Amino acid sequence: MNTPSTAQLMDKVDAKYTLVIVTAKRARQLMEASLKEGNTQHFNPVSAALNDIAEGKVKWSKAKKNQ
Q1: The domain containing residue 34 runs over which residues?
Q2: 11 domain-assigned
Q3: pTM of the model
């Protein structure tokens, strides 16, 4: 499983900070799902999260500021 390039990922989000936050949240979801299933195989949840983002499987929205 190859990690997508930064350019591919930046097409899916508006900023690098957003990419980091979305990746971290998705990686945590994948780890929690893996633990609930009792999956003892070792995998890299960050790489899997990046692939999901590049494939458009992860949706995100920009939060509005309260003024």
Answers
A1: 6-54
A2: yes
A3: 0.83
